[in-house]
């Protein structure tokens, strides 16, 4: 048998990445729709933070189970199921007449999209050569981030034109069409198409969960955490990636509109630019990591940019807007270094645990964000002085600064823990 042709490998990857794009779009829609959601559902800042974070609660809850599932039954069926459920969730969110139903819809989207990233990384390890893993992982992050960019000014423009409910419902219909394409072409391994796999036999699906020996799943989790880098990388992602996602996904737009006098459109352009640089940072730093055969150094370089950007924002929130934008855009590029965490973690554990460890470290991104979003909302509400504008609560600078200090402090601690990780030199632990 021959290796799969590149066009087939990229088609399989592209369909999975398109599903990841949809989930990223849904992840950050509350940032552009914050005013609409607060008005239509009568939400406080804490309630908006919790509604946004429901996505991340569900996403985080499915991460470790997804890692175990892809190790044992493969990615294709999981991605198909995720596309179907997320389409239904988007429809439900769009039709919701109250915050409870909206939260259920957000939860379904987060639960389904939680399957996407881990499953896509597993596909990459089967359909591409190992030396391309970090680069294709970075490209995957770039594709996903395009979804977040679409949830910025384009979503705001369409929402103003047609209403946010129509746009969200249409996105749900599109992902159901995508599900049909996934069913048609995506397979777990090139062997399923008559080609030679890039993955060693130990990483191929091992059957079903029911075929696993009793206690094997728990042993997988325990073994993953027995390796030093796992817990450290999990926490690093929670601070570096979590702070970036909490800011661009929800609180960045209210900060710039309420404290710096920008319009919603201008604020969404800033967060969208951060997301574009995030998308670029993943493949650029991934390529350098593959070329240098290093994980820790490029990861720490990117993480340092995040700490610096959010540190200045927290300590000097009234700095010139142009300076904050420059620092935050650079921080966005640096946050793309979280794409390296998956190759770094994968190389730190035995090959048969790659899916499990990927789910674990991806959980870190969500644990950070699902904590930071509502906590910042609680901080804002605790310092609210009763100011309302068009039915939306307005918060003072001191309240925002406390929330930003919380983000910056978490990121700084994560950076220190990253320095404690053990370099793999891009070599897989056997």
Structure commentary:
The chain has a single domain, classed as Growth Hormone, Chain: A, CATH 1.20.1250.20. Helices cover 76% and strands 1% of the residues. It contains 17 helices and two strands. It has a two-stranded antiparallel ribbon. The longest helix has 32 residues. It is globular, with a radius of gyration of 21 Å.
**Biggest sheet layout:** 2 strands, antiparallel
CATH fold label: Growth Hormone, Chain: A
Numbering strands along the chain, what is their spatial order in the largest sheet?
Answer: 1-2
Note the gap between the termini.
26 Å
Query: What is the N-to-C succession of helices and strands?
Result: HHHHHHHHHHHHHHHHEEH
Q: In the CATH hierarchy, what is the superfamily?
A: MFS general substrate transporter like domains
What is the helix fraction of residues, given as a range? Answer: over 70%
Shape: globular
Strand content: under 5%
Query: Which second-level CATH architecture applies?
Result: Up-down Bundle
Average pLDDT rating: 89
Multimeric state of these chains? single chain
Q: Provide the gyration radius in Å.
A: 21 Å
Record field, number of beta strands: 2
Number of domains: 1
Low-confidence parts, pLDDT < 50 over ≥5 residues?
Answer: none
């Amino acid at each position: 048998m021959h290796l799969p042709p590149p066009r087939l490998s990229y088609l399989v990857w592209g369909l999975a990445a398109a599903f990841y794009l949809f989930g990223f779009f849904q992840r950050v829609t509350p940032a552009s729709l914050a005013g609409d959601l607060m008005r239509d559902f009568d939400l406080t800042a804490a309630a908006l933070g919790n509604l946004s974070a429901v996505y991340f609660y569900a996403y985080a809850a499915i991460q470790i189970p997804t890692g175990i599932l892809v190790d044992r039954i493969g990615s294709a069926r999981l991605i198909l199921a995720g596309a179907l459920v997320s389409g239904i969730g988007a429809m439900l969110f769009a039709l919701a007449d109250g915050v409870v139903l909206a939260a259920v819809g957000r939860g379904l989207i987060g639960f389904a999209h939680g399957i996407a990233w881990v499953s896509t990384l597993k596909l990459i390890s089967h359909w591409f050569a190992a030396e391309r893993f970090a680069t294709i992982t970075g490209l995957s992050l770039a594709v996903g981030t395009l979804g977040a960019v679409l949830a910025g000014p384009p979503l705001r423009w369409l929402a103003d034109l047609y209403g946010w409910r129509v746009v969200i419902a249409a996105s749900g219909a599109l992902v159901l069409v995508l599900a049909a394409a996934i069913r048609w072409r995506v397979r777990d391994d090139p062997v399923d198409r008559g080609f030679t796999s890039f993955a060693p036999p130990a990483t191929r699906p091992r059957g079903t969960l029911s075929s696993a020996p009793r206690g094997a799943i728990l042993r997988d989790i325990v073994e993953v955490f027995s390796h030093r880098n796992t817990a450290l990388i999990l926490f690093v992602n929670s601070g570096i990636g979590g702070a970036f996602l909490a800011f661009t996904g929800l609180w960045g737009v209210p900060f710039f509109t309420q404290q710096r006098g920008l319009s919603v459109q201008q604020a969404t352009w800033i967060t969208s630019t951060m997301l574009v640089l995030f998308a670029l940072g993943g493949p650029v730093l991934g390529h350098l990591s593959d070329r240098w055969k290093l994980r820790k150094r490029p990861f720490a370089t990117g993480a340092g940019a995040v700490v610096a950007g959010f540190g200045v924002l927290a300590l000097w929130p009234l700095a010139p807007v142009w300076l904050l934008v420059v620092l935050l855009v650079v921080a966005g590029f640096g946050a793309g270094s979280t794409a390296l965490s998956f190759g770094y973690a994968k190389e730190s554990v035995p090959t048969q645990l790659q899916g499990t460890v990927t789910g674990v470290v991806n959980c870190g991104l969500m644990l950070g964000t699902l904590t930071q979003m509502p906590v910042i909302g609680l901080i804002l509400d605790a310092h609210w002085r009763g100011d309302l504008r068009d039915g939306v609560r307005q918060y003072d600078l001191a309240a925002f600064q406390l929330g930003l200090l919380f983000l910056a402090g978490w990121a700084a601690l994560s950076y220190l823990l990253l320095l404690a990780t053990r370099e793999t030199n891009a070599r897989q632990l056997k």
